Structure formats: C-alpha cells, structure tokens
C-alpha cells in the first residue's frame, strides 16, 4: 500500500511541476500582452474578453470531467497575478503634453501609489509634502495638474493654500468625503476641478476591477483624458454627485467602520482567548473576525477622520443604535413572530440580490476555508 501510494504521489508531483511550467509560460505571454496594450493604450482589464474566456474554459472543463468552478477559481487567481504583472509594462500616456503633475501628499501611501501610476504612464511627477511648503511656489508654478491626497481633517485647509495655480491647471482631490473638498476647490481655483475617491487602499497590486468614484466640478472636457487614463490602468469609473456620494459613504464607510470598531472594543473588553475563537470558528465567522482585525491593523487617525467627517454620519449611527435597541427588545420579549416579520421585510428589500449574495459569499467562504491551516 505504501509503495502504491508513493507511486501515485510521484505522478501527482510531476503533474504539479507541469502546471508550474505552464503558469510560467502563461505569465510570460501576459508580459508580452502588457507591452502591446501599453503601446496601443488598451486597458489592462477587458471585462468582455475575461467573461468569454472563462465561459469557454468552463465548457471545456465540463467536457473533460473537471469541475467548472475549479478551473474558474484557478484562472481567476492566475488573472489577478497577470493584471499585477501587466503594470510592469507601463501604460500609454494619453496627455504627453501635460505639464508636471504635483501630488500634494505624494509621500503618503495612497499618494505614492498614484505617483507611481502616473510615472508608469510617462508623466513628470512632483511630490509636495508637509515639510516642503517653503518650496510650494517653485513646485506649483507650472503645474498641469495638482492632486491633493492628505488626511481628511486637513484637506480643505490644504486646498485653501492653492490660490495661485495656472488657470488651465486641473485641480483634483483623492478624499473619501466629497462635498466639502469639492466646494473648497471650486472656490480657490477658477480652472478645471474634479473630485475623486478611489475605493481601495494603497496596498493593491493592480487597479484592475477597482472602482474610482468621481464628482464633476468644472470644465469636465479638460479632464476627460484623466478618466480615460484611469480606465487604461484597469479601473472602473462611477460618476455621482458629491451629495449622493457622501450619503452613500455614510453607510458604506462610516457606519460599517464604526460597527467594526465597537465590535473590536467589545471583544477586547470581554477578553476571550483569540486562538480559541479561531479554533472554533466557521469560515464565515473567521472571515468576519478577519475584517474586524484588519481595521485595527491600520491607522486609527484615518478611521477616526472617516467616521467623524460629517454630521450625517453621527445621525446615521444614532438611528442604527435605535434599531439595535428595538431588536434587543424583541429578544427580551422572545417575540419570534416580530423577528420573522422583520427578517422577511429585509429579505424582500434585498430582492434578487439576496440569492446573488448567497452565491457570491459561498465562493468567498470556500477561499477563506482553503487558506485556513488546522493543526
């Protein structure tokens, strides 16, 4: 039995080595694709091509007795690596005549990411940090675009300093709050203005499939090339008004981060053994715990600024607190009928998205379970 098992494992090892060689070949071809896309200004992410390719491979897998979900999982992970590799080829520059881009806060993580992407696209980039304002006039005098990416609590103060930009200079910000900064930019600068909110952190390997929200300010025809440049980087664009953006972020960011914060505080006060919680965890709880832990591995100032950035955030959190109290009352009275009625109401609100999210979450949970190491 041992000899038979050893022989089979040797054969599996050989297949694995062949898979590694094939993946190396695929990544090499992706590098060539990146050069072609760079020359012709093609986006690194082509959703139609990706969908068609996955559909074909699923059919081929099915015909050979291979689970289609398995080949899709492998290909999606491979494509994620491929998108990252395509960054190495650089990107086509859509505005080669543009004067220097000045990134205010360019020494920070997010600012540094955009500096790198602009440089990969062939633009001249300057960084203006908090210790370099004595050189601000020199750095800004001939700017073709100025991008402000500083902490939320000082964004409008920094924007107020940008009073002497060239008339045709594009002024933009990369802030998670839009109404205040956008209005501040419109007041300080009479040229093109756009508000931007990258819906990702600075640690992403690629902008493929990432979302950049933008709010029009003034002279949108002057910064259309910038939006197209983002798409070449692989980003998806979402146009929205500043007011609608901030209303959405109250739920997407402020409330979500605050509830994670409170749950983290609760865990720390209850002080359970974290290793024991993990050993008992289902994949979904482990994933939820990871998302809470992820918050506390980052900058406290950033999350304090996001949560406390607008009065409507506090109002929303208070309404959540009220509904939390109402739900506790249901538990105290053991009112299962009220619980089920509320459950059905929320299910109806989600509509078809409920089933969609169930399917999507099952894939996430499989991945989370695969990465778990049990002793």
TrEMBL record:
Against PROSITE patterns, the record matches this protein to:
CHORISMATE_MUT_2, PDH_ADH
Q: Name one GO cellular component term.
A: cytoplasm
- Major localization listed first in the record, in broad terms: cytoplasm
Give the location in the cell: Cytoplasm
Matching InterPro entries: 6-PGluconate_DH-like_C_sf (IPR008927), Chor_mut/prephenate_DH_T (IPR008244), Chorismate_II_sf (IPR036263), CM_dom_sf (IPR036979), CM_II_prokaryot (IPR002701), CM_T (IPR011277), NAD(P)-bd_dom_sf (IPR036291), PDH_C (IPR046825)
Task: State the pathway, as annotated in the record.
Answer: Amino-acid biosynthesis; L-tyrosine biosynthesis; (4-hydroxyphenyl)pyruvate from prephenate (NAD(+) route): step 1/1; Metabolic intermediate biosynthesis; prephenate biosynthesis; prephenate from chorismate: step 1/1
Q: Which UniProt keywords apply?
A: Amino-acid biosynthesis, Aromatic amino acid biosynthesis, Cytoplasm, Isomerase, Multifunctional enzyme, NAD, Oxidoreductase, Tyrosine biosynthesis
Q: Which GO terms describe its molecular function?
A: chorismate mutase activity; NAD+ binding; prephenate dehydrogenase (NAD+) activity; prephenate dehydrogenase (NADP+) activity
Against Gene3D superfamilies, the record matches this protein to: 6-phosphogluconate dehydrogenase C-terminal like domain, Chorismate mutase, NAD(P)-binding Rossmann-like Domain
- Describe the location of the Prephenate/arogenate dehydrogenase domain by residue ranges: 99-361
Kindly give the Pfam families that the UniProt entry links to this protein.
CM_2 (PF01817), PDH_C (PF20463), PDH_N (PF02153)
Q: Where is the signal peptide?
A: none
* Protein name in UniProt: T-protein
* Gene encoding the protein: tyrA
């Amino acid at each position: 039995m041992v000899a038979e098992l050893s022989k089979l494992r040797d054969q599996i090892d050989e297949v694995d080595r062949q898979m590694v060689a094939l993946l190396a070949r695929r990544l090499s071809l992706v590098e060539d694709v990146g050069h072609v896309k760079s020359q012709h200004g093609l986006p690194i992410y082509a959703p139609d091509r990706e969908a068609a390719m996955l559909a074909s491979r699923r059919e081929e897998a099915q015909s050979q007795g291979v689970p289609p979900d398995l080949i899709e999982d492998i290909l999606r992970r491979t494509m994620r690596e491929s998108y990252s590799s395509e960054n190495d080829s650089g990107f086509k520059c859509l505005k080669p005549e543009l004067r220097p881009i000045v990134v205010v806060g360019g020494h920070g993580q997010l600012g540094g990411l955009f500096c790198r992407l602009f440089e990969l696209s062939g633009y001249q980039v300057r960084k203006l940090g908090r210790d370099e304002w004595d050189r601000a006039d020199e750095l800004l005098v001939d700017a073709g675009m100025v991008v402000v990416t500083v902490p939320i609590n000082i964004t409008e103060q920094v924007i107020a300093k940008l009073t002497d930009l060239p008339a045709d200079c594009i002024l933009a910000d990369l802030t998670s709050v839009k109404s205040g900064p956008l209005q501040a930019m419109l007041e300080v600068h009479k040229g093109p203005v756009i508000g931007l909110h990258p819906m990702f952190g600075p640690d992403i390997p690629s902008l493929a499939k990432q979302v950049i929200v933008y709010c029009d300010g003034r002279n949108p025809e002057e910064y259309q090339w910038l939006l197209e440049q983002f798409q070449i980087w692989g980003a998806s664009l979402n146009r929205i008004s500043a007011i609608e953006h901030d209303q959405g972020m109250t739920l997407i960011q402020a409330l979500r981060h605050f509830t994670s914060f409170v749950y983290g505080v609760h865990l720390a006060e209850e002080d359970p053994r974290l290793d024991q919680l993990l050993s008992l965890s289902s994949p979904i709880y482990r994933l939820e715990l990871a998302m809470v832990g992820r918050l506390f591995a980052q900058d406290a100032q950033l999350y304090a600024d996001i949560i406390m950035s607008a009065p409507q955030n506090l109002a929303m959190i208070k309404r959540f607190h009220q509904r939390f109290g109402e739900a506790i009352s249901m538990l105290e009275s053991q009112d299962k009928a009220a619980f089920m009625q509320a459950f059905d109401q929320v299910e109806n609100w989600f509509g078809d998205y409920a089933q969609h999210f169930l399917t999507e979450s099952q894939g996430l949970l499989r991945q989370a379970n695969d990465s778990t190491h049990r002793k």
